[in-house]
Structures are given as structure tokens and as C-alpha cells.
Design goal:
Shape: globular
CATH class: Alpha Beta
CATH topology: D-Maltodextrin-Binding Protein, domain 2
Helix content: 40-55%
CATH superfamily: Bacterial extracellular solute-binding protein, family 7
Radius of gyration: 32 Å
Strand content: 15-25%
Number of domains: 1
């Protein structure tokens, strides 16, 4: 082979090698370009999600209650949040507020009417200030057991009352449980009707409660729940009435010596939503929040009943004297307050009251 030909072959081989290297470099650059494109697409997706949230496509429910974050009511709100956010894929977010952070029951219901708050879960007593018919659920000794209460409230009669809220720009979605209200005080044991005589008792701002305690000989003093602990601590009132879970979790045992299972009222909670907000939801979203309110309510009732048993023992462990009220003593109390019940029954409407009592009787059969 001549020297000239050898030089030509070497030149051709060098060109081939360089071409191969150039091809590899081009592939690497193309790969880097694909990766950059994917990152840009991801960034674009995140930006789109942010734009959707900013545009209001993500709806927010602010749900507020008066009780603290250890109460079964708040656990119910957390369950509602979990269900709604999961079922809507995050298109509805739920913010939960406890301990009266958004106000007392009445002010939160007013916020629902105005559309400045979306959800609250008050007991029926303050609701009566907006819909008078709800007063019946605070009739003393109406429900003999929580099981009977469940059947009546979850049935046609209960739904009839929820439907009444729409006229007040609120939508009732479900009944939760506050529970049987019991009496605590710092003066003496209460076992009979006579033991109420002279006791100053904080009540909710509800005329029926006030009149019933006055009929029993007590001095009822209505005030906001957020003011109650201080009033008990300073001796402004002798006692108060609430379910056992509330008595314990709000620390009333620190300023009260006696607790009695008077069970004078079974108090439901009502899960309600601003009608303005409810109407802004799609039919699918409405179904989701309705079912979530019911499911979370079933969970909350179970939590509440277990907690009441536990906290009753805890109150005694903390030094409170527990007094069991006999059936006979409770019947005597019921007879004493009957004139008050009759008076309010006539104001509410005899037909409606009879319908509720008939449902209670049917639930016991």
C-alpha cells in the first residue's frame, strides 16, 4: 500500500469517528431538551392549579363551633373535612374553627345568613331564636333515650324541622348530638326538685330554658357560653347545665364541686350551612356535603356517647361529687315544669307538638 493511500484511509477513519461522536452529542442534547420540556409542562400544570384556586374554582368552607378541639363535636368536623376534601378531590376545602374563634352560636348563625361563614353546628336552643318551632326540642324530658332521639330526628319529623331553616337563609343537613344535659354547681348536691331552690344557674339564651328553671325554683341567668367559665370561677352563678363531655372538657370541674344526672333535656346539634353557599355548589357537590354531614354525624354520635361515659368517671376522679337522680325524682321535675311546656306548646302549635310526641311514642314501640 502506498503512503498516499494510507494517508487517505486514515483521514476517512478520522472523519467516521468524529461523525460518530457528533451523533452521540446530538442525542444527549435532545434528551436534555425532553427533560426540560417535561419540567416546563409540570410547572405549567402547577401554575394552572394555582390559577384555578385564585380564580375561585376551589371553594372554601369555614366551619366553626363554640366547643374546644378535644370535644367529639370538633372530631365530627374533622371527619366532615376528611370526607368532603377526599370526595371532591380538593375542589372544596374545609377550614375548622373551635372554641368560639368565629363567634358564639348566634353570631355564627347570623354569619351564615349573611354568607360570610359557611357552616356551624349549634344546639337547638339558640336556633329557636331564628325558628321558633325548634323550641320543642328543648322541652324538658321530651326524649327518654338517645336511641329514641335518633329515630325521631333522623325521620320525617326531624326533616320537617330542618326544612324550616331555609326561610332563614340556612340549610339544615343533619342532626349531630350534644347529649343529655346535666347540672353542675358549687353549692350542694341536687337529687330532687327541691334542691333547685335558690340556685343561680347559667342557661343558654333561650326563653324555655329560663322559664323551666324558674319554675323549679332556681334563678336562671342567661349568658354566652364563652363567658361561662369566668362566671363560675368568680361565683357570678352557682352552676350551669351541659352534657358531661362539655363539663369535663371545658374544665368546669375545676370550679364546680357537684354534678347530677338530671338529664332534663336531650340536646341535639344541627349541622347547618349557609344557603347562599349551598346554592353556589353543583348538584354533585351538594350531594357530597349532604352525605358527609350525615356520615360525620353518625361518627360524632358514637364518639360523643363513648366520651360521656369516660368523662363522667373522669369528673369523679377529679373530685366532683356525682349524684344519681331517681326516676321518681325526675318524674316530679317533669310534673313541675309541665305548665311551662303547655304554654310553649300553644305558641308553637298544638298539631306540630302532638306530631313530635307521637313520633317519640312510636320510636319506643
Amino acid at each position: 500500500m502506498s503512503k498516499k493511500m494510507l494517508m487517505m484511509l486514515m483521514a476517512a477513519l478520522l472523519i467516521f469517528i468524529l461523525a460518530g461522536c457528533g451523533g452521540g452529542s446530538q442525542e444527549e442534547e435532545t434528551g436534555a431538551g425532553d427533560s426540560a420540556s417535561e419540567e416546563n409542562q409540570d410547572a405549567g400544570t402547577e401554575e394552572d392549579a394555582s390559577e384555578e384556586a385564585a380564580s375561585g374554582d376551589v371553594k372554601t368552607i369555614r366551619a366553626g363551633i363554640g366547643l374546644n378541639n378535644e370535644h367529639p363535636q370538633y372530631k365530627g368536623l374533622e371527619k366532615f373535612k376528611e370526607i368532603v376534601e377526599e370526595e371532591t378531590g380538593g375542589s372544596i376545602e374545609v377550614e375548622t374553627y373551635h372554641s368560639g374563634q368565629l363567634g358564639d352560636d348566634r353570631s355564627m348563625m347570623e354569619a351564615l345568613q349573611l354568607g360570610s361563614q359557611e357552616v356551624t353546628v349549634p344546639s337547638t336552643a339558640p336556633i329557636a331564636n331564628f325558628v321558633n318551632e325548634f323550641t320543642i326540642f328543648d322541652f324538658p324530658f321530651l326524649f327518654p333515650s338517645s336511641e329514641v332521639a335518633d329515630e325521631v330526628l333522623d325521620g320525617e319529623v326531624g326533616q320537617k324541622f330542618l326544612d324550616m331553616l331555609e326561610e332563614q337563609n340556612m340549610v339544615g343537613l343533619a342532626y349531630w348530638e350534644n347529649g343529655f344535659r346535666d347540672l353542675s354547681n358549687s353549692s350542694h348536691e341536687v337529687a330532687t326538685a327541691e334542691d333547685f331552690d335558690g340556685l343561680s344557674i347559667r342557661t343558654m339564651e333561650n326563653d324555655l330554658h329560663i322559664d323551666a328553671f324558674r319554675e323549679l325554683g332556681a334563678n336562671p341567668t342567661p349568658m354566652a357560653f364563652t363567658e361561662l367559665f369566668t362566671a363560675l370561677q368568680q361565683g357570678t352563678v352557682d352552676g350551669q347545665e351541659n352534657p358531661v363531655a362539655t363539663i369535663y372538657l371545658e374544665g368546669f370541674h375545676e370550679v364546680q364541686d357537684y354534678v347530677s344526672d338530671t338529664h332534663h333535656v336531650y340536646s341535639p346539634f344541627v349541622f347547618m350551612m349557609s344557603k347562599q353557599f349551598y346554592d353556589s355548589l353543583s348538584e354533585e357537590e351538594q350531594t357530597i356535603v349532604e352525605e358527609a354531614a350525615v356520615e360525620a354525624g353518625e361518627f360524632q354520635r358514637e364518639e360523643n356517647r363513648a366520651a360521656n361515659e369516660e368523662y363522667l368517671q373522669s369528673l369523679q376522679d377529679e373530685g366532683m361529687t356525682y349524684t344519681e337522680v331517681s326516676d321518681e325524682a325526675r318524674e316530679e321535675m317533669a310534673e313541675i315544669v309541665q305548665p311551662v311546656i303547655d304554654e310553649y306548646a300553644s305558641e308553637i302549635g298544638e298539631d306540630l307538638v302532638n306530631e313530635v310526641y307521637e313520633a317519640v311514642e312510636a320510636a319506643q314501640e
